[in-house]
Amino acid sequence: xxxxxxxxxxxxxxxxxxxxxxxxxxxxxxxxxxxxxxxxxxxxxxxxxxxxxxxxxxxxxxxxxxxxxxxxxxxxxxxxxxxxxxxxxxxxxxxxxxxxxxxxxxxxxxxxxxxxxxxxxxxxxxxxxxxxxxxxxxxxxxxxxxxxxxxxxxxxxxxxxxxxxxxxxxxxxxxxxxxxx
Length: 181
Fold this sequence. Notes:
Keywords: Membrane, Transmembrane, Transmembrane helix. InterPro entries: TIMP-like_OB-fold. The structure is a single chain. By secondary structure, the protein is an alpha+beta fold. It has one domain (28-154): CATH 2.40.50.120. The chain has helices at residues 2-16, 34-40, 129-135, 158-180; strands at 43-54, 59-70, 76-81, 97-104, 114-115, 123-124. β1 and β2 (59-70) form a beta hairpin. α1 (2-16) runs antiparallel to α4. The longest helix is centred in the C-terminal third of the chain and has 23 residues, at 158-180. It is elongated.
């Protein structure tokens, strides 16, 4: 009886822990040409990183936009990326400028959750001369904006998941006890 309960507890504990994408290694296909990358991206812009905030499973990057070719209206934008190349995160530094190709992964219609990875054409501004030439003249006037709120709200599933696992554990224990009696 005790062994089954311990096994169920350990199983549910491991099941409830965040895992999945974080454990996967990053593997990218060949980068598309500039025109195709622009078409696939939801936002293409040149900007300087003003802040990098480390969250639970990603980094939140605040960028002062200098020029935009697609999907950017504000002078400040926030994107999300992994921590390193193992989780497809960009090798970026605050104070440096980059040409970003970002995708919108938001699940809500009126919000944006822009991400960029090493599997995009995102690169340092110094290495982006050919891309910028092919993109042509971009937009350089933007509306003033506030950085987007932190993506920590996306981690709101953790507490309900743990509570649900505990309830499931008690229900399974109750069922097993009833079956044995």
